[in-house]
Protein 1
Amino acid sequence: MIDTKKAAALLQTMNRILLLTHVRPDGDTIGSATALCLGLRAMGKEAYLLYNPEITETYLPYAAPCWAPEGYEPDHVVSVDVAVADLLPENAAPYGERIELAIDHHPSHGFFARESCLYAEAAACGEIVYEILRELTDITPEIALPLYVAIATDCGCFVYSNTSAKTHRIAAALMETGIDVSGVNKQLFRTKSKVRLKMEARMVSEMELFDNDRVVIMKIPLALREEMHATETDIEELSALAPQVEGTDCGITLRELCPGKVKISVRSGARVNASEVCGQLGGGGHKAAAGATVEGTLDEVKNAVLHAVETVVSQ
Amino acid sequence: MIDTKKAAALLQTMNRILLLTHVRPDGDTIGSATALCLGLRAMGKEAYLLYNPEITETYLPYAAPCWAPEGYEPDHVVSVDVAVADLLPENAAPYGERIELAIDHHPSHGFFARESCLYAEAAACGEIVYEILRELTDITPEIALPLYVAIATDCGCFVYSNTSAKTHRIAAALMETGIDVSGVNKQLFRTKSKVRLKMEARMVSEMELFDNDRVVIMKIPLALREEMHATETDIEELSALAPQVEGTDCGITLRELCPGKVKISVRSGARVNASEVCGQLGGGGHKAAAGATVEGTLDEVKNAVLHAVETVVSQ
């Protein structure tokens, strides 16, 4: 493990750097990697992001100027916000064994890189990248905007329990570079497509409560997605809905990825350790937010996750 | 107009102070007044909030320790987050003519008090109260929590366009007093009653689009409220839903207060000045968020507000 100063010093020695992001890329992995890439370029280095085939329209505009040319042969490889090697996209396979630096904030980090710069208490990987970049270059508005996206998305725009005083101080510093975050906030946190609003309405009408109404399960069947012609962007972060139901402290979303395969998202309060629940099912994450992908029908997976919650709570 | 230093000096000269909040009290008026009350008490002064008859369960716990005894005879009267004298609750009538200091952040402020401490660019009145209290006393965790509530509620937990770097810096300072804001954030911004979720689902299914789909109108008829047995808390801030519809830049919520009386809430982007729209209908507020209460049926008021939008946009 190395700190942000040492990570900065290590990056200083590199050139021709390829940055890797994680599967189902979110604002933190894309925003952090983009900001790092732009910072390295501002230092006169060559740096690229490996194309992430699952990028959604939401985050594409940030990463687009940074995609590596096809067949790019880097001298150095760095992963950003990647908890374990299994979470690298398939096209990252050629680089998986030669990652020299992993910058991450997941407590479940797998230490797959030669050096790891891990701060498990950081609300977002963007906080760590901010500290690293401060050592290396000016935080220009161009760098500040994707960093703001990274940080704001991973703390739900400063509402999740991972938000710290430091998170707010970094947000203030980024805004003081002159970036206008109101457009980003509007797009990322205050805009829902009509399809998404209708899907949410359906998920609410069909939600189920368990464990003395403390656990709520919402489902996104493939059929619903098809009926609504929902895009990947429409269903992004739909797992934020279940934990909002008053009186519950464990919101579980089951999303049917394909027949026989279900993605579980668990968002929980102090009573239920989401990371342990998902750990029981082969996944992982944070105490308050974790995930797993499991084989089975929606009903089978529902029973499995309820059983996992029961096991973890009774431990 | 006086600045926060002078407002602090003026408060320093006062004792036996009654603080007034506005009708349909929100987190900012209650949180700011409560924090100011606790700060004045920490200085050894006698201070109270005038009971606000419309207080909801959401904010009652903050204000409860501060309510003035019935028939309290103050020596000084201060209003907090009150834009115009008309927005004082009825039971404030005996004090309306003798307000010595108004602390406020509404651009439409009516200058009804002897002295006004107005910062129209502040995201919340809580920011101004924070600056005033810093001059007077330690910001203890007891004071920091209602101030956090004041600031966080008025900027939608740091998502609205009024959020500034300063807003984040103050939030950081408040959190550094040691308060745990995760419970507050969860309760205020990440919890919805089942009734509320169902009302939202209905509002979504019945929303109407106008002006080339840029204006969306959602309605809360009395009948829907009765059918759902919705409480005041269930429908609080339901006006935040309409502005979320993708592709629109003007979200209007019409809430039938009683037969023949409708409350209009307008939330808008740069194209539509919400304050001017509501000004046309006898109301007011901020450029991006304003309100008015109008006589008429839901349909009549819908037509009136659409006409007002058209007038303002074409000016």
Protein 2
Amino acid sequence: MNWEDIAKELSIETETKIVLLVLDGLGGLPRDGKTELETARTPNLDRLASKGACGLTDAVFRGITPGSGPAHLGLFGYDPLQYQLGRGILEALGSGVEVGRNDLVVRGNFATLRDGLIVDRRAGRLPTIENEKLCEKLNSSLIKRGGIEIRLYPGKEHRFVAKLTAEGLSDCLSDADPQKEGRPPIQTLALVPEAELAAVIINQFLDEAAEVLKDSAPANTILLRGFSKFPAIPTMASLYKLNPAAIANYPMYRGLAKLLGMTVLDVGPDASALSDVLEKHIGDHDFFYIHFKKTDSAGEDGDFERKVSAIEEFDRSLPRLLPLNPDVLVVTSDHSTPALWKGHSWHPNPFLLVSKTSRLDGLTSFSEKECARGSLGRFEARFAMPLMLAHAGKLKKFGA
Amino acid sequence: MNWEDIAKELSIETETKIVLLVLDGLGGLPRDGKTELETARTPNLDRLASKGACGLTDAVFRGITPGSGPAHLGLFGYDPLQYQLGRGILEALGSGVEVGRNDLVVRGNFATLRDGLIVDRRAGRLPTIENEKLCEKLNSSLIKRGGIEIRLYPGKEHRFVAKLTAEGLSDCLSDADPQKEGRPPIQTLALVPEAELAAVIINQFLDEAAEVLKDSAPANTILLRGFSKFPAIPTMASLYKLNPAAIANYPMYRGLAKLLGMTVLDVGPDASALSDVLEKHIGDHDFFYIHFKKTDSAGEDGDFERKVSAIEEFDRSLPRLLPLNPDVLVVTSDHSTPALWKGHSWHPNPFLLVSKTSRLDGLTSFSEKECARGSLGRFEARFAMPLMLAHAGKLKKFGA
């Protein structure tokens, strides 16, 4: 019996509200002895820490640096080792492409074909504006087949997402990409008998695309890799009997929230806007996932100061959010993005939980170091969900 | 390879003695900043904390509120997700009904049948004294069939436990209970072919009971739900080579101990009696599970002061117990029952281990907050057993 079965059996609908604040990439590494979070002036977060219980989470397990997909899945109670989202679906979500249950998505490159060989897998990193034009040209030229729709969505430079919509398409397909230059283009192969139909359609599409593009060198063909269907993942409503909403600005997080059945609410990139949206919709949902991206972006850029500022910006927004008085408030991150590391890292995430039923750890500030001393201990992020549900009174007793 | 296999392979018989003191529902929540345990004057527990190592346990995992069954199974080293005790067996244990390996037990209700429909599933919550009379009447009227014995044990109001004794009875049976009023009574159905025999016997019994009761309205029929056999659970002797004893007053805990093969010793409800019984039997066993109920009862009643008093009562009993000098002494609880929550909760349990081989955490008091700082960390309660066995020198090295 695993957590999903337990959740389905024990969860109950209540009036209580959970707010999960995710400061993307919050955790850091010390510069001159202090991390970004320790450097930032955060009187509101510090006060919250003194009113709740703290801990540290690992997105997957110790030492594993997660992508945004697994890191977020864990926070929502999904085992990130069980649910691995395909590259195609993440690229689609990240590009703001809507993906439904009958869609098959895949990452694409414009590439250069010469004398029957792929000589440049990125078509000279063609300008994004050219990419957009070519996608439009292909979209208007592709022959519609009975019940099958194919659409390309331009990305940056040579990248695009292709979406095929039809019933019964399987994503058990090999990449239509020779991976190395100097090789001939290759077709996709069905990896299971049920994928034969999809393979035929995709290989026809590849031929047609090459025909349409034949005079557009260097972008005179396309490569496709990472075929993905809408993943077979249960919704948060089905697992937890929640009516959840996401307040997020970036396509990737909005798309992921949608995958899990959340209502996705619009918001800008600034922290100040988050509480406005929460206030407006607080009556409509019982679970709010609120995503703040600037901390991660600054960390990725290796900009320690900007990450400190982003944390302070978030902290300043809290006095408007707290009076909305959720029954359970969690502040944490999906993964660490230390400015000194310039990317996602494996370091654990600060985790702070405030509710009427939380024990008080007596900590006086919110930081990686203080969280390491908190009573919640160190745990895999997928246990955050049972913990939040329990504090919200949304889980019945297990066993008699 | 799981813990049970490891335990069987590595455990050895020794002269050393383990005493596991379970203060039921010990963990709490703060009132005016202090939990019940922090409020109580506990000089003896505090002194023990300074002589041992501390930690916090989760009965199942973070966020899960356990019933008494899973909470205790964990403490004895059984995975509570693997061994789920049926409602019938727990009701039987809680009622003090002895359950053997050939017994099938089930929860029963007296109910009211009118014009072919169950119109009251609780027979007007008939007086317990009436219940007792009806159970006696049924017990004396039921026809004994070859090798099959059926016996009813009255509970409170409309509730009873029925026990069927025969070889080869399966508990894979549907409830003989329409669950809602205004519906006709239903028979039990065999959910697997092996349960056919049990289904036939039970449905005959239902008919006979209705016949015996036909003039006893409102209690003129019975409903049965939660058929359970003695669970297929290995004994502590078979896993750990222990000769374990339980010192417990309440039927539920005595019954559970019996399930695991413990010798169950009699004791009253007061803490002072526990050490008397332990002293008398210290030479007979190498593992003692000692259960103190008052902390939980006070918590369930929401009586903060009474829970504080119960903790202090227990603390005062320690000076008589400690000179018995067990090699490993653990003080913990099965689950938290905060007075402010008035029920079992998911908050982790304080855990204190004293032995010659324990590291010293240098803590000066025994409380939830101090335990959060202890060197044992936060762990699932099922790891308490390997820890106790190790400190008692009862586990060999794993691997070469």
